[in-house]
Amino acid sequence: MSYPDLYLKKNEDKRLRKGHLWVFSNEVDTKRSTLDQFTAGELVNVKSDDGKILGTAYINPQTLICARLLSRKANLKCGANFFKERLTTALTLREKIFPKPFYRLVFSESDGLPGLVIDRFGDVLSLQITTAGIEIRKDALLAALIELLTPTAIILKNDNGQRQLEGLSQESEVVYGQLPENLIIEENGAKFKVDILEGQKTGWFYDHRSSRAQLASFSKDQRVLDLFSYTGAWGVPAAIAGASEVTCVDASEGALAIAQENAHLNQVADKMQFVRSDVFEFLKQARLDNQVYDIIVLDPPALIKRKKDFKLGYEAYRRLNHLALQVLSKNGILISASCSFHLSRENLHEILRSSGRHIDRHLVFFASGGQGPDHPIDPASPESEYLKTFFCSVSSSL
After folding, report:
1. Domain span at residue 35?
2. Is 244 in the same domain as 331?
3. CATH of residue 85
């Protein structure tokens, strides 16, 4: 069976030939390939202006990213065997790196499965399907997962805005097996309860695993402030490592309740306190109260979700780092992170430089980090590299 052709305009094939997987709607030659002839999720053969095959993609004519390549070959068969092959490749990498089955199993384009994220919590799998192309093939995907991993439960975590853009349902559901009453994972020697159905994204953020381990390595006897703490992924390991006190601040009552459970689970509840507050307001009040902390973790959610939000988002990151530095003790450590793709590493670097100078503190970077190895970066897809972290030592002005 031959799929319909999607022709690109002249010279619009350069990015794909370099390894990228996306086709934007304005790159399509709509005279030769009228977009309204296609249905969302349909497979197409992508061709350059001169008719050379660029690969098989699925298409959604209603979205800006209107096609995503699945293969460099034409007429790819996209059934259970296709998914099993891609999943096996992804699994092989993770099993080389991690001794236990707690990791991101599939990281979308980087694992050759655009529109799909899978987090593995032992025998439980949490899936985020964000495109119609994967959605209409989810039965084949689920069959491959069940055959390969024999999970006890599979959850479709559908409550994200990208699905709305693709015209898909946003209702999460358990599609296979039964979710255990208490789901516990292990990371960096700590145990954590994960609430998949009510939690953010897939229920957990594995991406900062390496940076959280680094924090724990110098937390002994330190007073730690964990801002945007969510369920305690930074704060709990710091307490386990010997921090004298850990304060977790988050606006979500539900997240803080789980963070408190995680503190008890790891027998460090006596060292931890949990404050429900807007982080900006907390930092302003801490300054007024002359509170200072030896280590501050500043790991906000994505404040720049779209390119047009850059100006406001940049200012929010600047204010947060400025306020955090004002309640950092002499010779303290600020761990500043951003998961916003549109805020570059250079942008965060400049925010920290200018914030340090503005309050007359000497700030130096002694380490930096990014996403963990279960979030591999495709060098042809800059969008796959989104996380950046700076470890800053901050002293009095020179």
Report:
1. 5-71
2. yes
3. 3.30.750.80
Q: Looking at the 3D structure of the chain, how many domains does it have?
A: 3
Instruction: Find residue 372's DSSP bridge partners.
Output: none
Q: For 117-143, how does the pLDDT look when each residue is reduced to its tens digit (9 = 90+)?
A: 999 999 999 999 999 999 999 999 999
Of 155, 177, 199, the last residue of a domain is: 177
Q: Name the strand (E) or helix (H) holding 58.
A: strand 53-59
Q: Are 213 and 190 in contact (CB under 8 A)?
A: no
Same domain, yes or no: 145 and 193: no
Report the Cα–Cα distance between both ends of the chain, in Å, rounded: 71
User: 155-169, 218-232, 246-260, 282-296: lowest mean pLDDT where?
Assistant: 155-169
Backbone angles phi, psi at 203, to 5 degrees: 115, -15
For tokens 């996380």, the residue is 387
Please give the angle made by the CA atoms of 170, 61 and 3, to the nearest 5 degrees.
Answer: 110
Whether residue 269 sits in one domain with residue 346: yes
Q: Which residues contact 334 (CB under 8 A, 6 or more apart)?
A: 295, 296, 298, 321, 324, 325, 328, 352, 363, 391, 392, 394
**How far from 282 is each of 197, 228, 323, CA to CA, in Å?**
29, 11, 10
| pTM for the full predicted model | 0.94
DSSP string, 316-378: HHHHHHHHHHHTEEEEEEEEEEE--TTS-HHHHHHHHHHHHHHTTEEEEEEEEE---TTS---
AA letter at 208: H
